Amino acid sequence: MLAAQRSFFILAVMLLAPMASAVxxxxxxxxxxxxxxxxxxHAMEPLDTIHSPLKNVDYxxxxxxxxxxxxxxxxxxxxxxDSNDFRTxxxxxxxxxxxxxxxxxxxxxEYGVFVLDNLGSSTWLVRLSHPNDLSVIQSDDSIRWAGAMxxxxxxxxxxxxxxxxxxxIPAVDLNPESLDTLALDLVKMGADxxxxxxxxxxxxxxxxxxxxxxxxRVIWAEEAHxxxxxxxxxxxxxxxxxxxxxxxxxxxxxxxxxxxxTGIDQDHPDIIGRIAGVYTQFGLDPSPADSNGxxxxxxxxxxxxxxxGDSSSVGIAPGANxxxxxxxxxxxxVFGRIxxxxxxxxxxEQEGSRVAVNAWGLNGNYGxxxxxxxxxxxxxxxxxxxxxxxxxxxxxxxxxxxxxAPSTAKNVxxxxxxxxxxxxxxxxxxxxxxSLDGRVKPDLVAPGVSICSGRAQEAAIPVGFSCGTxxxxxxxxxxxxxxxxxxxxxxxxxxxxxxxxxMREEVGISTPTASLLKAASIxxxxxxxxxxxxxxxxxxxxxxxxxxxxxxxxxxxLNTFHDNSRTLSAGFSTxxxxxxxxxxxxxxxxxxxx
Length: 594
Prior knowledge:
With 594 residues, this protein is of the alpha+beta class. The chain folds into 4 domains: 110 residues, no CATH class; 94 residues, 2-Layer Sandwich (Alpha-Beta Plaits), CATH 3.30.70; 60 residues; 283 residues, CATH 3.40.50.200. It has 12 helices and 33 strands. The chain has a 7-stranded parallel beta sheet. Strands 1, 2, 30, 31 and 33 form a 5-stranded mixed beta sheet that branches. A 4-stranded antiparallel beta sheet has the order 7-8-6-9. A hairpin with a 2-residue loop joins strand 4 and strand 5. The N and C termini lie close together (7 Å).
């Protein structure tokens, strides 16, 4: 990642009274409501950009062997130390005096190093142009410390000789042909099978760990875990939650929402004519059918079903088109992915999707920033107009830091579940944060209890109970009821798409960034009553389309100021000026792509 990060603001400003929560109500709205709402959205320009002092740099380096400051502490021994490793791999650790973009760019320009990864603050993993450059870099006054990247630092402490499923991060300076060669070489190292894509390799079988750690094409390896869908319990309550905000006149028209799941019933009446594509190349078999539990069809129609079979089961964005990625192995019901998440989302982006719903997570490494999490952050950095949403997961025991990866990524929306009622509360099965590195997760919650949505006609063992009215041609019910953070993620994905539609069609922001969408959704979230927002249960609150596009408090409309293109650099501050009533409140949300 580059040191200069793009950061985006969204501000909701009230001139008459402090900011507070508002509850969505089903009311009759005049036809010009959206025009009035859009008039209260204002693009803002900074008054000035000034120099500002840099915060103190944390010089500690975190490795599997321990955390240390290289100038203060003894460098801990790893499972495999080799101070001359850089002579064969070219990999070195360089710690700058200052954590600024200029310092990094000067390092690249002066010594021709290739930046492989950030190891925290001003510490970087680089590939040397020539092994002899390390001693020259060590004598540079702008460099605080530089040394070899020990092979043992590239393997997680969780990986041992018994590990038979490993996720590895290939170096970013490898071309596609080199990735194919790396996969073959991993098999030669002892793996039963291996594949490599952009930013991720997966290895199955017992591989020679010393060979893996010494391979300069791999910058990190950790235990991998199977993917898991996130349903808590099935319910039999008929109807849909009161979160659709249909009175706003937003229906997702012009939006193309992708989702990855078990498959989709392409003949369900609630989605016919709005499936833009169905793809299976990243799944475990070539069939797109949702032939086992029907989870994927339920998620798809929660996002975008139009209620043709039962108007009480209409989805959140019934005018949107859907791009489906089927990952389930139909004969066994195993849910998994072939290829990297970067590759899969890149395909969705090329198909025109800008919001992706992923109602699943990894069944292990809870709370951790994993290889998949990193792939997602790199993807959004490379595709700043694309926002992925991931399920935070289900944990009936309500233990701390049990959010599922890869919702632990920084550039995604991590979604937990709330109850399905106008007042709302956090569902008692929704996984709690924070992430293991202390970040707020989940980011938001959305209704996810007893959601009545589409049942796949071909589902042999449906995972929910029947609800709604209507039947398929084979006599199976059209709808079933499910609960879980999967359903909450689908609700949130549809809601984000409505917010994006409003920004495009009403405000005139032709290409809303993922950062703006995330900041707007967080800014408009409703506090469900858990103390100290943000917190590890509801994050920043429950997503609300109406409170995002037309925020108000006690009947007073609020103005929203947004900046969709600002770039911030270390050592500078951007100043904005507003005239507000000093007795009033101001709510500010800043999100920057990491």
